[in-house]
Fold these 3 entries.
Entry 1:
Amino acid sequence: GGLGTLTENHNPVGQAWTRTAAERAKCVITVCTGSGYLAHMGLLDGRRATTNKLGHDLIASWGPKVRWQPKARWVNDGKFWTSSGVAAGTDQALAILKTTFDSPELADAAAYTMGWHHRVDDGDRDCFVAKRAWRVEV
């Protein structure tokens, strides 16, 4: 994720590596604008995904066949997990622990160990969505 996504969208070597790695992976996780990178390559076509709230409209334009979820904190669709930002990525990681190991206790223990207040158990609800009014145009 981050601003590097803008340049990596035009890096055929990086895209080839990412495509191969994503095809082989059991789980593909993105944070922030990383979902735009996958969307640009068509890897999220037909799937639900989310991305950074501030750059949502730009990122969504990179993947017009993606079923973008602008209000989601994180989204899981098959082996793909996308989150709307860095802090949301931490909540997403806790959800992945919970799902992968079928253990809410493990996710709670990880959050406690990090001193993290797990914001929501449901990725479809992002507590920061109302703040989207102050987004900046890129």
Entry 2:
Amino acid sequence: MPIKSCFFRGAALAPRSSFRAMCSGSTKLQKSLPGKAYTDPKFYDIDRKHALGPSWQLLTHESLLLQDSDKGPATFVSDVVSGFPTIVVRSSKTGELNAYHNICRHKAGPLEWSDTRGVCPLNGLKCKYHGWTYSLDGKLKGVPGFGTTEEAKFDKSEYSLWPMRVALWQGLVFVQALPPASAEGVALSGPEANALFERDNTAFCSRLTRAAESAGGRALTDFHFYKGATHKLKCNWKVYVENYLEGYHIPTIHPGLNREVDMSTYRVSVEDGMVEHLTDTTADSAYDGLWVWQYPTLAINWYGPGLSLERIVPTGPDTMEIRYQYLFVNPAEELGDAEKHAIDTSAEVTEEDIGVCEAVQERLLSGGYLSPGYLSPRHENGVAYFQQRVREVHNQHAAPGDRY
């Protein structure tokens, strides 16, 4: 059977000195995390505040902000990022992006409904609840129904929207819901924020740039939104991330995929913060591309004719969503066979992953997972790195009696 060599699953990881031992090919065994790391609401709260909120996370693709830019003074995309309602606005005149918590300063009403996009006809934002209005730079402009008496006046400058940091890189729009103190003084948007994103994610940016160049000289900005898909899962977000970071389960969970890859050639390579899963594939495989994971919640699945942005969206201690955005260079209403095959294969593999991840979560919640097992040095060094970061965050912020 003819085979071709391709990148399989790659994980772009922030460099850490503790990770470099794995890069050197260490075979030291590491135990997995205890069950409570995936089930205890206290650890989920720590995840949101100290792992997810300060990290760069993908919100959307720029093409969704550009679609209606000729229909109004500004456009928006709103969604939820790791439990944080988020809205990004783009000025049609200047192209400037701003990101905010999608929360009105009055009584926490939504500025726009979650999981929507469209035009800002007022060149700003208006709360859906009581109609408070804000400019694109987040300043409070109007408070209808307050009257004109002196008693009704207050300093509006103290009630601007709560900002997030936003960065644009190669058409991908990222936000930091809780900008970390380490980046204090860096602008929340524009060139400074974009440069900060690149510095924080050097390996990720470099790898995707090279992948785009090798795919016929394309750039990520050449791809445009075709359609989205959402899958709801009954599992902790870390269960799904760890499943994504290893191919150890391919022979047992993915029979179709297993027929298209040569597992005898499967290997995990870790270098300078980048994890790439490499294997040979059959000549007719849909998996002719690069699979990239960026800490903590983004996967980019690169097929021959296009790619999908896979947002891993935590929604609770034992629930999450996978939100796909499928992108193609020339998206059309009627896709070709290769594009259809890529989407169909993505759906098949996702459903198989959902089944096993939900089964794992059920058993973690049962109380019968009494002690964690060892991770495979060959297949799970990406998982080991991820768990190492999780363990550090949990033990730094958990109460002494909850640490592990």
Entry 3:
Amino acid sequence: EASKGNTTGTTDATSPCSLDDTAVYVTFFEIYGGRIQDLLNERKRLKVLEDGKGEVQITGLEEFEAVDAEQFLSLIDAGNEKRTTHATEANDTSSRSHAICQVLLRDKKTGRLRGKLSLVDLAGSERGTDTKSHNRQRRTESSEINTSLLALKECIRALDGKLGHVPYRASKLTLILKDCFTSSLARTTMIATVSPGASSADHTLNTLRYADRIKEKKVGGAAGGDAKKKKGASARPKKSLKPASSLPAPKEEEMHPEPMLLDDIDEDDKQYDDDFDLLVDNDDDEQGGELDSIEKLHSNVVQSLYDQEEELLNTHMASIQENAELLTEEGKLLQGVQGDDVGDYDIDQYAAALGTILDKKSKLCTDLQARLSSLRIKLQEEEELSKRRVAVAGGK
């Protein structure tokens, strides 16, 4: 049984919980290449939105009810099998995405969230020297993985330092996990996978340092730095995630204002840019020097690549839809001058209408070509930076 809706929200911690009145739901999605994909629903693309209370939501994500342990494990296995993996120099089946499995406990009668366990499997970071033989797809994946891991570290650093601003929007990973940092009810545990082999000593030490910073994190206080700016940020929309047939409709006064798509808010776009710039500026754990500068430039270009790729795809789809409408309009125009029952027609009117249609088609092609050209420039920049990175790394 599946249901759609938003998945974040506060829990009803004061209500006792038992199997008799509590249902268990599972969601499983991944963050791959800047996109969020539902692994239990044919990789459907999901959107990250923010409601009027400043709470982050993932819309369209399906929740599947697990009635017993066997079904619960089956759902987790199904999602894990569909996670994006590819062969790399280090592993035959390397994880190329961050995977998030959420176990939700809901009241059977009201659908109210009583508890949530988020299991986050982070993809491993990769150094530039480890990706010298990667193609562009693998390189951009590695850059995105490293950027999101760095964003997570910077959020933890900001919280530890009790800074006024925490750069949650530097990556989708930290934005989605925001409630893990801002809620006083949240408890976080990191499990680090390390190798005892001498050849992996550097990776092991870096992983342990990363995990140690998580361990020192104290939830509360600075954790609410951003959340305090938006009163009631911990309140959850009462919008039901269970099938409508099994739950009573929520009262109108219980609903939050409609969620706002982050990409549609100018100041939020600026906030993302500011957070990403802060992320790059604070990255002081690399080797330094020319290689460090190239890595930072490469991260910037990859982020721009993902943004422009998304814009190109959206523009292309809109162009196809509008061209279809124009084709229908052209058909009607021709029918009006070539139909069997047409005796006479105004050639000037026909020419003017056809000219308008062709102008619209020309504009669609021009806009699409401009976005394509911009993307190709970024692809070339990424290629050149990658070659520079390999050359500099090889000279060390």
